[in-house]
């Protein structure tokens, strides 16, 4: 059951329904302050594609997900869009990007997987490449709907991303309630 939630048609339809009024517009505004218009951008874990649509207005965006069900939905909704089947941990692509964005995706990675993902993010980014990722703020981890969820603090993010990226900012913001989320912006060292 673990990690199956985003893989079945039923759960993907449920997620799309539940998340239909939610998007990362305010996070993307922060990204736009550090990434020039028309830059190439990889979105990890595009899911329903709400953020992909906003990103697509400013950047040359490549959407991605490791769920075939989400990819089917993304491709059907956006026939002219570019999407890759990509796992956040391995990021197996020979393409290079000026930026990488994810909204509430990397919290599904355990500590070891996150370290591997960050190394790969460093590799697939061009010089001066930037990252913009959101997380749930808190301590510890849990299994929610059969999925692993790891909570992060400013300190834990600084430690793990600081190996390969200069941290530009880590800000807390409200997804559902004040201070429940963190947005990290960084630039390749
Ligand atoms: C909480 S949803 C967020 C979706 C979207 N970014 C949003 O803001 O609505 C998590 C997404 O990450 C994807 N995901 C989870 N683990 C992943 C992994 N290891 N590699 C790539 N995508 C993953 C899921 O399929 C799902 O689309």
Offer a concise description of the structure:
This protein is an alpha/beta fold and 189 residues long. Helices cover 31% and strands 30% of the residues.
Structure description:
The chain has 6 helices and 9 strands. The chain is α/β, with parallel strands linked by helices. It has a single domain, classed as Rossmann fold, CATH 3.40.50. It has a 7-stranded mixed sheet, sandwiched between helices. Strand 1 (40-43), helix 3 and strand 2 form a beta-alpha-beta unit. The model has no long low-confidence stretch (mean pLDDT 96). The structure holds S-adenosylmethionine.
What string gives the helices and strands in order? HHEHEHEEHEEEHEE
| Oligomer status | single chain
Helix content range: 25-40%
Shape: globular
Supply database-style keywords:
single chain, 189 residues, alpha/beta, Rossmann fold, seven-stranded mixed sheet, 9 strands, globular, methyltransferase, SAM-dependent_MTases_sf, Methyltransf_25, methyltransferase activity
Topology record:
Layout lengths: L8 H10 L6 H8 L7 E4 L6 H9 L1 E6 L2 H10 L4 E4 L11 E6 L8 H14 E12 L4 E4 L2 E4 L3 H8 L3 E9 L7 E8 L1
Parallel strand pairs: 1-2, 1-4, 2-3, 4-5
Antiparallel strand pairs: 5-9, 6-7, 8-9
The protein binds S-adenosylmethionine.
Keywords: Methyltransferase, Transferase
Organism: Ulvibacterium marinum
GO molecular function: methyltransferase activity
């Amino acid at each position: 059951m673990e990690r199956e939630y985003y893989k079945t048609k039923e759960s993907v339809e449920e997620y799309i329904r539940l998340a239909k009024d939610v998007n990362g517009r305010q996070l993307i505004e922060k990204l736009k302050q550090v990434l020039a218009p028309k830059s190439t951008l990889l979105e990890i874990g595009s899911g329903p594609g709400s953020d992909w649509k906003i990103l697509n207005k400013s950047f040359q965006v490549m959407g991605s997900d490791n769920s075939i069900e989400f990819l089917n939905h993304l491709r059907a909704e956006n026939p002219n869009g570019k999407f890759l089947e990509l796992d956040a941990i391995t990021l197996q692509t020979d393409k290079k990007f000026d930026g990488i964005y994810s909204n509430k995706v990397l919290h599904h990675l355990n500590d070891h997987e996150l370290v591997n993902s960050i190394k790969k993010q460093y590799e697939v980014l061009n010089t001066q490449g930037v990252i913009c990722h959101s997380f749930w703020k808190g301590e510890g981890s849990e299994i929610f709907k059969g999925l692993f969820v790891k909570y992060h603090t400013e300190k834990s993010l600084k430690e793990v991303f600081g190996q390969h990226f200069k941290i530009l900012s880590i800000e807390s913001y409200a997804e559902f309630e004040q201070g429940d989320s963190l947005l990290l912006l960084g630039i390749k060292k």
